[in-house]
Design goal:
Keywords: Membrane, Transmembrane, Transmembrane helix. It holds the Pfam family ABC2_membrane_6. This is ABC-2 type transport system permease protein. By secondary structure, the protein is mostly helical. The protein has one domain. Helix content is 74%, strand content 2%. It contains 13 helices and 2 strands. The chain has a two-stranded antiparallel sheet with strand order 1-2. Helix 2 packs parallel to helix 7, helix 3 packs antiparallel against helix 7 and helix 8 runs antiparallel to helix 10. The chain is globular and about 55 Å long.
């Protein structure tokens, strides 16, 4: 099937999913507001501690807010367009994956728009903390306006990296079927840890978050250049390379995993 036709069908599936969700507009708005409040409370806990002690290992409250916001927005971008990758287990257990195999388009493109979500609450929360953090650092002269396009760039590359990690983890389900516990480690726990400076952790954990599960490249590594002027501008090019490498590897692993899929028969 041609790429143009696949993308047209992908857009149609997204529009259908959005139309279905927007039938209950009040529920959508209420859920978005509650999601924003719940998410922002996580950062407020850290902000209260930082307000008292000033900084943690040389990282100010604005810098940690920046790390937190970039990770949140990267995750939101990934989950908006590919949330069902994270929920592949239910397709494998229930046998619904068989239906995706019969669609006249690549299986991954058929999976991604299922139950498409507009994560407005996460966007509001992440966007607010990002604007607050950048505003504070701009006011002090720590960063200039160049930080804005750089930040948009790393949010995009971060989403690609998180998607790649999620896809690789989901692919393991073709052998194990159950992957929720593994996802708690590779996606949820790793991402939560990387919301804060990796200098807080022992060397083995820092290596884990940079090499084995490369969530450190989503926000920590680029922030060393954008916020602190360390490493050099080459970091942004290297970051794009890491994102492309992760995506290519995860897609190849996914294609191999599908060949090992066995229907549950349900």
């Amino acid at each position: 099937m041609k790429l143009k036709s696949c993308l047209a069908m992908y857009r149609l599936l997204i529009k259908t999913s959005i139309k279905s969700r927007m039938q209950y507009k009040f529920n959508f708005m209420l859920a978005s507001v509650l999601a924003a409040l719940i998410q922002i409370s996580e950062f407020l806990m850290i902000a209260i501690v930082l307000a008292k002690f000033g900084a943690i290992q040389g990282w100010s409250i604005y810098e940690i807010g920046y790390l937190f916001a970039v990770m949140t927005l990267s995750k939101t971008l990934y989950r908006t367009f590919a949330d069902e990758v994270h929920h592949l287990e239910k397709y494998l257990v229930g046998g619904d994956f068989d239906q995706l195999l019969t669609r006249p388009m690549p299986v991954l493109l058929a999976l991604m728009p299922q139950n498409f979500r507009i994560m407005l609450g996460e966007v509001l929360q992440g966007g607010f903390i990002l604007c607050w953090s950048l505003g504070g650092m701009m006011h002090s002269g720590q960063v200039g306006w160049a930080a804005v396009p750089f930040t948009l760039f790393i949010i995009f590359t971060g989403a690609v990296i998180l998607f790649s990690i999620g896809l690789a983890t989901a692919t393991i389900g073709f052998w194990t079927t159950r992957i929720e516990e593994l996802q708690n480690f590779t996606e949820d726990a790793a991402r939560t840890a990387a919301q804060y400076p990796l200098t807080l952790y022992p060397k083995w954990m820092k290596s884990l978050l940079l090499i084995v599960i490369p969530v450190g490249f989503v926000n920590y590594v680029p922030s060393l250049y954008i916020l602190k002027g360390e490493l050099g501008a080459w970091v942004l090019a290297a970051l794009a390379g890491v994102a492309i490498l992760c995506l290519a590897a995860s897609l190849r692993f996914w294609r191999f995993g599908i060949t090992k899929y066995q229907s549950t028969g349900s």
